[in-house]
Amino acid sequence: MQLAIDTSTDTASLALVRDGDLVAELTWRCGQNHTRQLLPNLEHLLHQFDLSPQALTGIIVARGPGSFNGLRVGISVAKGLAFSLGVPIVGISTLEVEAYQHAETGLPVCPVFNAGRGEVATATYRRSRGRWLQLAPEHISTIEALCSGITSKTVLCGEYVTVIAEQLRQHLGSKAVVPSATTGLRRAAFLAELGLKRLTAGDTDDPATLQPLYLRRPSITRAKHR
Known about the structure:
Helix content is 32%, strand content 29%. By secondary structure, the protein is an alpha/beta fold. A hairpin with a 2-residue loop joins strand 7 and strand 8 (131-141). The radius of gyration is 18 Å and the shape is globular.
């Protein structure tokens, strides 16, 4: 039994999978309440199937980019479980999880997260000839710069896309494919599918060194010594 944890944004999600099949999934809007809500929801999910944490044989966690608090909470819990249970752990880019839900369209998929300061976090992926490929790495951009690099019909997804949908359509016209808010909800089942591929291949992370992918330092940091 493997557990997938995603607390990257205001949407949180948990999934339990066994032998590649989804056993249960819980996805909810948690806002900034990751610390208070994650463990009770995980306990609830396990309790529904009379499972204890000792039943887990692998941990899969979304490592960002996303909110600083959300990522710290999710990765801390994931690493704690991996350490205490002695099971492998893998971290997956949250942008990749967001994009993977739309892989079957066959189009380039561009997840877009709000990075603050008028900027966005983004990357580009596509399924081609049966292979899931990253066409552009995770990076910080502006909406204008992002749109200027899109030359063909592209799926633009993520919670923030519903906020900026009109801007995207103004820049891109018919090239912008914007999923509905319901079909665009990021789910831990897709995180689990990506993570299982790495677990099966033995491509795991060291729980001691696994770190969140922030792309940018927090706005409040320790002052440099003069």
